[in-house]
Amino acid sequence: MRFSTVAATLLPIAGALATDFTVLVGDSGLDYNPSSVNAVPGDNLIFSFVAKNHTITQSSFADPCTKLSPTAIDSGFMFVSDGPLNFTIPVNDTNPTWFYCAQIVGTVNHCQSGMVFALNPTANKTYDAFKAAAQSLANSSSSPSSSGAPAPASSGSPSSSSSGSTPSSSGSPNGARGMQVGTAGALLVSGAGLLAGLIL
Ligand SMILES: *[C@@H]1O[C@H](CO)[C@@H](O)[C@H](O)[C@H]1NC(C)=O
Ligand SMILES: *[C@@H]1O[C@H](CO)[C@@H](O)[C@H](O)[C@H]1NC(C)=O
Ligand SMILES: *[C@@H]1O[C@H](CO)[C@@H](O)[C@H](O)[C@H]1NC(C)=O
Ligand SMILES: *[C@@H]1O[C@H](CO)[C@@H](O)[C@H](O)[C@H]1NC(C)=O
Ligand SMILES: [Cu+2]
Q: What's the distance, CA 175 to chain centroid?
């Protein structure tokens, strides 16, 4: 009796508390703002594309710059010519869910430049770790394939540590990023060492 009364009281409240989170896409360079949102079922993520030609595309945590599956969430390219374009994603659960921008223009790969977004990241799978994983791909793949599909991450070729062509994105915040790339680079190096250890 008491339970059902409580439930009946809570349900409308839960509905009333549903939140629409507006995420600006491209408002200051290659970014989602905010870059991470914690939301509950019933909430909506409203991606408001304000500049250029970006996407919001679902990936996995482990493979940040590759579309999760052919049917994964994907806005497609949202070319902004006259005012914002909205793409709304309803939130159905509290599972961590990962997104990136699939745009590649010349040598500038938006995802590998850190243009990623996290829905409900966890203590173990953080936005920062996801972003670092995306940026580390810039070091391992020198040239993206010409097709629209992002090049698969080439797993460790320890000898080629050139990484000369890191795309520099104009207008993106670089202070924290440099540090994260450094960390990811160190991880890569130790990974390569492990690999070499296994082979040799
Ligand atoms: C948006 O970007 C995609 C992928 O680079 C490109 O194919 C498309 O032509 C662009 N749209 C416009 C209107 O420039
Ligand atoms: C896009 O979303 C924003 C933020 O929720 C809203 O203010 C605006 O009216 C929406 N624009 C359109 C065209 O739906
Ligand atoms: C929630 O479900 C709707 C309807 O099936 C789907 O369009 C949307 O992509 C889902 N949201 C997430 C974050 O998976
Ligand atoms: C998070 O990582 C810690 C330490 O590695 C582990 O003990 C814990 O089970 C993990 N939690 C989840 C939810 O995976
Ligand atoms: Cu983009």
A: 19
